[in-house]
Specification:
Length: 166
């Protein structure tokens, strides 16, 4: 997993005129949130919320899914007619049974990572979703709402408001 940035820069320096002379100033990587069923979560965040909405889980398809999320949220907020795919994007939807093996595999991978390093906080401090570890970024990432934590559990990015337990 490591060395990806270096390989990309070497490729670009060999092929793009002027790139070889340019210093590396910044690197960017996306923290694309992926849901277990591959569909975005758009709408009321939790059954107990009245005025809290979420639009996440675009899985790298933010341009198209962002437009769809905007249409859906606008309809929900204004009381207008909701699109026919509203239920598909509902964050409170129940996952089909066929998703369970994939969820179990991801949870096992997280458990192995915790057993070999970080000892506590295997769930996000925001709403308790299982975290995944990004080997390249060396961060724990929440697939539900996008919170990110350093490898030692320190909060990097919300919506979580506190670090993982110590």
């Amino acid at each position: 997993m490591t060395g990806r940035y270096e390989r990309l820069e070497a490729w670009a320096r060999a092929r793009l005129p002027g790139f070889a002379e340019a210093p590396t100033v910044r690197r960017w990587s996306a923290q694309d949130v992926h849901t277990t069923d591959g569909l975005p979560c758009v709408g009321h965040e939790h059954p107990d919320t009245q005025h809290v909405y979420v639009a996440t889980g675009f899985g790298g398809w933010g341009l198209s899914n962002g437009v769809a999320a905007g249409r859906l949220l606008a309809a929900q907020l204004t009381g207008g007619p909701c699109p026919p795919w509203t239920e598909l994007f509902d964050p409170r939807r129940r996952l089909p049974a066929r998703e369970l093996p994939g969820i179990a595999r991801r949870q096992a991978a997280v458990a192995r990572r915790f057993a070999s390093g970080l000892r506590s906080g295997r769930r996000c401090t925001h709403m308790g979703c299982e975290l995944g570890f990004d080997e390249v970024e060396q961060t724990w990432e929440c697939p539900c709402h996008g919170s990110r934590f350093a490898s030692d559990g320190t909060l990097l990015q919300g919506p979580a408001t506190r670090s993982l337990g110590g």
